[in-house]
Amino acid sequence: MDPVHASIAPEVPGEKTKVGTSLVDTAAATIQSFGPTKQIHQHLCAFHFYADDMTRQVEAHHYCGHVNEDMRQCLIYDRPDADARLIGLEYIVTEELFLTLPDTEKPMWHSHEYEVKSGVLFLPGVPGPVERKDLEKVAKTYGKTIHFWQVDKGDELPLGLPQVMMALTRDGQLYPNLAKDVESRYGVSFEKERANRAYMEGPTHGIHPKANAAGVGLKTVLREIECKPSGHPESVPRIFV
Questions:
Q1: Beta carbons within 8 Å of 232's beta carbon, 6+ residues apart
Q2: What CA–CA distance (Å, rounded) separates 109 from 101?
Q3: Structure pTM?
Q4: Burial class of residue 131 in the structure, from the number of CB atoms within 10 Å of its CB (0-12 exposed, 13-18 middle, 19+ buried)
Q5: Cβ neighbours of residue 241 under 8 Å, at least 6 residues apart?
Q6: Parallel/antiparallel/unpaired status of strands 53-68 and 109-111
Q7: How far is CA 184 from CA 54, 87, 107, 180, 181, in A?
Q8: How far is CA 206 from the centre of its chain?
Q9: How far apart are CA 239 and CA 227, in angstroms?
Q10: Separation of alpha carbons 62 and 79, rounded Å
Q11: Residue 199, helix vs strand vs coil
Q12: What is the pLDDT of residues 84-134, one digit of tens each?
């Protein structure tokens, strides 16, 4: 399957936003605070692949905010335009926090060292010296990413199960045409930036062997089970029928 390009994203079905809806939105925007989204402080562009299929690679635009010095949380869109589709989420933690996770949890997290040092993770429009100052920290972190919208399949809506995503960990994994497309659109050179970032270091203890799906694949599976009752005296065994 060919990698998806932001420039060929299918149009989302549905009626165009009406003037009345826009007016309500505008009015609400003048009243409400939008505290969580106002914490977004940076835009990172990178690539993700599905944890069970490295041939399925997508461009991912992260809009991130710090929870604290050890954790960031990011909204992921398929492109940086106003009509971009929200396709997923990523949580980013320092090595110190990652090491506190249960071993059963660690495989769902990926390392960022290769992404940063290879140049393929970048902050669009940010001058190199400023960008590298932050990426020195990112190179040491781990991320947990879930995508809800499989844009590489051309889905017009978010269909199917949430998907665990992984990040690149070595040369030869990223589709060359996907890399060239992004380099061309953003005026960046991954190879030049690789040289600029050669001094950077990854996690202090090295990349954990259980990270990056522990070197194998992970697939999201849905199975039917009995729904546990709420425990309320008047609750019924099943809540959907």
A1: none
A2: 10
A3: 0.89
A4: buried
A5: none
A6: unpaired
A7: 23, 23, 33, 6, 5
A8: 22
A9: 8
A10: 9
A11: coil
A12: 999 999 999 999 999 999 999 999 999 999 999 999 999 999 999 999 999
